C-alpha cells in the first residue's frame, strides 16, 4: 500500500445499562442500531434513542434488512461461481442482533432452500458477542454447522474472550488481530 492514501472512518454505537437494556443481548442490539445511525449520519458516535433506533421501521429494521440482502446476494454470487466451476466462499458479517434473533434460523433455512447454497457462505461474527447469551450462541452455531454452514469468529483478541471458551464454540475459523497483524486460523 506504499503511496496509497487510505481513509479510515469509524461509527460508534452507545447503549447504556440499565437505561437501554437490562441484558447483554438487548444492549448489543441497541448498540448495533446506534452504530448504524452513527455511520449513516457520519457523526462518529450515536447514543441509542429507543424512539428513533428501535425495531419496526427504524434503524434496527434497516440492519436486519441489509443483513438479509447481503446474505442473499452472497448466495446468488456463489451460485454464479459454482456454474463457472469456482468453489469459493463469501464471508458475510452478521450482527449479533440478527444472529441472536429468534427468526434467524427459520429465515436462513428459507433462504438456503430457495437458493440451494450452504457451504458457499460463512457468517462472520465478532468476538464481542461472547459477553451475551453464550449458551444460545453455541446452540445457534451448532444448528448452522449441522445445516452445512460454518461460522467465522472475527476480531478475536480485541475483546476479553478466552481461548478455552472459544474452543467450545462450533466455529470453523478464527480471525485474530495480534500486534497490528491479522492472522487467520482455519480448522
Form type? globular
How confident is the prediction overall: mean pLDDT?
76
Radius of gyration: 17 Å
Number of strands: 7
H-E order:
EHEHHEHHEHEHEE
CATH class (first level) name of the largest domain: Alpha Beta
CATH-assigned fold name of the largest domain:
TIM Barrel
What is the number of domains? 2
Strand order of the main beta sheet, please?
3-4-5-6-7
Structure annotation, total helices: 7
Q: Helix coverage percent of residues?
A: 40-55%
Strand content: 15-25%
Structural class assignment: alpha/beta
Architecture of the largest domain, CATH level 2?
A: Alpha-Beta Barrel
Q: Which residues form runs of ≥5 with pLDDT under 50?
A: none
Amino acid at each position: 500500500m506504499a503511496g496509497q492514501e487510505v481513509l479510515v472512518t469509524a461509527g460508534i454505537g452507545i447503549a447504556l445499562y440499565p437505561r437501554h437494556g437490562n441484558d447483554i443481548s438487548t444492549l448489543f442490539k441497541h448498540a448495533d442500531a446506534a452504530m448504524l445511525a452513527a455511520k449513516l449520519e457520519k457523526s462518529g458516535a450515536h447514543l441509542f434513542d429507543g424512539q428513533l433506533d428501535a425495531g419496526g421501521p427504524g434503524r434496527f429494521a434497516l440492519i436486519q434488512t441489509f443483513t438479509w440482502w447481503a446474505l442473499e446476494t452472497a448466495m446468488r454470487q456463489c451460485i454464479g461461481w459454482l456454474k463457472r466451476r469456482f468453489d469459493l466462499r463469501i464471508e458475510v458479517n452478521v450482527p449479533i442482533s440478527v444472529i441472536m434473533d429468534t427468526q434467524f434460523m427459520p429465515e436462513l433455512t428459507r433462504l438456503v432452500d430457495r437458493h440451494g447454497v450452504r457451504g458457499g457462505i460463512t457468517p462472520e461474527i465478532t468476538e464481542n458477542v461472547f459477553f451475551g447469551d453464550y449458551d444460545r450462541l453455541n446452540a445457534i452455531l451448532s444448528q448452522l454447522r449441522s445445516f452445512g454452514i460454518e461460522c467465522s469468529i472475527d476480531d478475536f483478541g480485541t475483546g476479553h474472550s478466552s481461548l478455552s471458551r472459544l474452543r467450545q464454540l462450533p466455529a470453523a475459523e478464527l480471525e485474530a488481530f495480534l500486534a497490528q497483524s491479522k492472522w487467520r486460523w482455519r480448522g
